Amino acid sequence: MKYKGTYKKLAKFGRELLKNPSYSSALPHISKYAKEVIGVQRCSIFINDIEKKELWTTLADDVSRIVIPLDKGLVGFTIKERKPIIANDPYTHLHFLPEIDKATGYITTNIITAPIFNSKREIIGVLELLNKDGGFDNEDIKFMIFFAHYVSGYLELINLCLIKESV
Q: N or C: which end of the chain has fewer CB within 10 A?
């Protein structure tokens, strides 16, 4: 198992995460950990805004805020399917949005997404990782499910306490 040993680091990560009382401070911390553990170039955490029917992120490495309709892209497809999605050749995937690469100047070579559920099994966000050497596999899916579950309670707490910052 390629993630053996990373779970010890997860306890330290969790303690550090509790020191971040807002999206703007917590999301970069979550991203940094996910990128290091899985070995990817980029990480985005999309928040599901049910009222506006859109997904947004203020965390997309070196990219300004991204907002997409709730039913678009691989992150929208992840919400619809309620499970992780791997696209090791994203430009051939029906739900991939190449216009985001065009707008950002970044080239996505592979992508993995995982829904982030709250305690009511509602999807509150999507964790998205980009560009892993060699592509993503089933072990990555297992870790993404575990990690999304791990951070979900924290993200739900931010929402419930209404301490998220305006974005």
A: N
